[in-house]
TrEMBL record:
InterPro entries: Powdery_mildew-R_dom. This is HR1KZ10. Pfam families: RPW8 (PF05659). Residues 5-50 form the RPW8 domain.
Amino acid sequence: MPLVELLTSAALGLSLQLLHDAIIRAKERSLITRCILDRLDATLHKIYNSICH
């Protein structure tokens, strides 16, 4: 795997992880938007799985 692809994959993985962590923190603070955040988190999980495989 070329270095550029490796660095891009690492940056994307880190970005998705940071976004996931932010969603988890937001879900802990808000009851009203929890459903929306759950769907967003599920979408991120699907994106992450499709990229990793």
